[in-house]
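Worked Example 4.2. Consider the chain below.
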Amino acid sequence: MNQSKPKGFGTRGTILIIVLFLGFFSFQTFTNYPLNILADLYGGSTTVAMIMSAGTFVGIVIQLILSRFIGRIKSIKKVASIFGVIAIVCAWIEAALPFYLTSVWYVVYFIVNLTITIYALFLMSIIAGQWFPRRKGTVMGISTIAYPFCNGVIGFFASSVFAGETPAVFSSFLPFLIAATAGLVLFLALVTDYPEQCGAYRDNDKSFTPEMAKAMLEEEIENKKTTVWTTGHIFACRDFWCIAVTCGLILLAAIGAMTQTSTIIGYFPNLNYTVIMMVIAVFGAIGSWLLGVIDTAIGTKNSMMICVILMVVSGICGIAACASGTGALVVLSLILLAMFMGASSNYTVSAAVQYWRREDFQGVFACVNPIANIFNALAPTLTAALLFGGGGVNVTNVFVMITIAGVIGVVLMLLFSAKHVKAVDDKYRTAAGKPLDDALANRK
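Applying the procedure from the previous section yields the following structure tokens:
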């Protein structure tokens, strides 16, 4: 079969991208805004960061448990629906609770972090990989524009919360709650586990016939049951760790810094928070899309290498800004961070699809994503500790962390080898009595 070059994403594929966007939008809004803007209402940044990290960490543990039998789950959508409904219902409660019910708010905020991590960052991302195995970079690059978009409007959110004498948390959250609920409704009504289940095709490739698509789907579902990439084999692969840890370091830098933008920008008194966050949003949207396109065009490893180099430069600019008191340098540093902020959630999907077989994707992603999100869980608490741990505010520490993370990421990307993944795949397939082929040859 000669596959034609796919054009567009199809109606259902476009709906999936919208749902993904709104899922990431929900994650960023209901986890980050309480920490970045509202923390003083609920016990301070350190306390809220610890709850955010704890919720994310428990979500990671659940992901690791699911990874052991992910290929045997008949419908990822059904599982995602459960977590999605709980997450959005709790988000409404989180926004509506009065301030004096702080202990109850902690519990709800914990549940939101736990469930939205599994729904948006884990299960929805699996569905994205199943729909767009060859174009996952571009699709995720568009979807994760949600992150810089949220950072662009966070200044307006902060202004609306504190516009009156009493903080107006619920009314300020209301537009975000409506958007998040709309995304969940679209997901429940119009998204399927696989495109073939609603008359669409992988990557919107119209060269497939319905019969061919059905046969491919049935073969893939069957092969998932006998994948040679068990959890043990995945964790034993050195290249898996190169990818997973680098994804985590990218998340650590981007998420950590973006949860404390109000403090970092406030360290430079002549900077306008709302304007700078809008600038970050614009460059973040461009970077998310561009790194996704690069991912699809020249490979996930190359796109990730660009990302970690940006991280190093960002850290150095931030350190120089703190040493000299130059606001322009810290703005440049945050712009560079924003460039890969959205991409920080692209690569767990992209790498699992790019360097392993289609039937192995769920299992590999189910291991890559939780390992990477351990760094995501640590980011808020670690960043808050570096900022406030010495008794004052030490912004330099955050940029030192970003620089070190970037350097380690560069080294890990140099060590990663797609050819070695194929060699290991050949070894496992031979041991399992499966035929060898060139499906993983020449992966970029």
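DSSP finds 18 helices and no strands in the chain. The radius of gyration is 21 Å. Compare this with Example 4.1 before moving on.
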